[in-house]
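Work package 3, deliverable 3.1, input record:
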Amino acid sequence: MQEDIRLMKGNEAIAHAAIRYGADAYFGYPITPQSEVLETLEDEMPWETTGMVVLQAESEVAAINMVYGGAASGKAVMTSSSSPGVSLKQEGISYIAASELPALIVNVMRGGPGLGTIQPSQADYFQATKGGGHGDYHLIVLAPATVQEMADFVALGFDLSFKYRTPAMILADGIVGQMMEKVVLPPQRQRRTEEEVAAQCPWAVTGKHGRGHRNIVTSLEMDSPKMEENNLRFQRTYAEIAEKEVRFQEYFCDDAEYLIVAFGSVARICLKAIEDARARGIKVGLLRPITLWPFPTREIEALSRRVKGILVVELNAGQMIEDVRLAVEGRVPVRHFGRMGGMIPNPGEVLDALDTEIINPAKK
Amino acid sequence: MKEEIIIAGFGGQGVLSMGKILAYAGLMNDLEVTWMPAYGPEQRGGTANVTVILSDSPISSPVLDSYDTAVILNQQSLDKFENKVKPGGTLIYDPSGIHHPPTRTDIKVVPVDAMEAAIELKNSKTYNMILLGALLALRPVVDSEAVVKALKKTLPERHHHLIPLNVQAIERGAQLVK
């Protein structure tokens, strides 16, 4: 066995990956099912090795505003929470987006609405992809399906977020947060030096250091024409992200007569259902969006020209299905199968839904 | 090779840690593994279960409809999982506290009185390792060397002096089903 193959929970993988990325700070507040992120960071004590700050804030609101401050100074900073806690962070997320700052936010979703349950859910899709907070902004939203992706998307999320100066979110769920799998951790990177931060983030509030002008980070602009200019700039960034950063994975799509679209750990449940369907001679494919925003609209549109029907499977009442329907534009039936409140469908239920909703709807 | 296992019982019986040792042993044998707990308020007295999948090829779903092998430690879990063992599969159960024993005839049903054996070993905490020994004797999905390595990985160092006792418990469990 190689040294760096480990068995760990998705939440633990996020913590280890953050340290190894050379993240400067984590600010969080515990909530099930993601508390292992903070717990693992506290166990690892990275402040004694890489110098990474790990702080349990007094609340989720405090944590996201600490992220806002750290991000404004050009640091690689992150927070994590679960659904109700992420709702509390929305104001801060909107401010971070409007201030064009990089940050990584992790949401390990649990069943809602309200305080809901601690069991897995994907019911924050709308919140993550359609804004969440106020104003016209987007997060880059990454949906991991494996513990390995939980680790990998920390670096990806930070890198994209710095590249486009916009916050990124890892939108996971209680399944991938709590399950253990093999994971290969990336090598340890050094945290950036003050000089590197100043060079790479000329917008950061690092002190003038001989610079001729003051950097000011704010989301406030009382002059409406200027605020519209800001919005147009944000939209150009979002258009560029939508153009360049769509990520997805296709499984068995080449000869598929039917298509399932699912994200995160649910995509894996669907993959097992597809293996079983194919064993019975039913040609089903799977498209798994990896970026939920930007959404793989073009790819789903292309597939909708080749399949007879599409089933969208989610742990919610039907959220991503709206984006699938926008891509499909009515060409073929698009139906939903979802469980809510922390209930998890097994592969057999997915197969039954595929049959009654898409293959043999007359039987219904 | 692919083995889909459910371990289910009360919280505090060592269900999750037994699954963890099994998963680590799979890792030591270069298998793909998933360990999926039904997480929640699994303190002593509540129900707990964990799905462990060991496979020599990539694993799709960590959530399953049915299992090759079930290790069942209380009546509620038996009621829930007896019908989810695949035909030809194996159901190991602890008969103490079971009022309605399994009735399936198309699977291998093996009672293992692990609590009695644990008392003989003078340590009730060896309970789950006795069951692991029984499981591995019936379904040798990982080798014993891997299990010892897994014990070293999962037990905190201050408990490493208990590894020989755990190995003894695993051997005792294997004897019980021989």
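Chain B touches chain A through 22 residues (CB under 8 Å).
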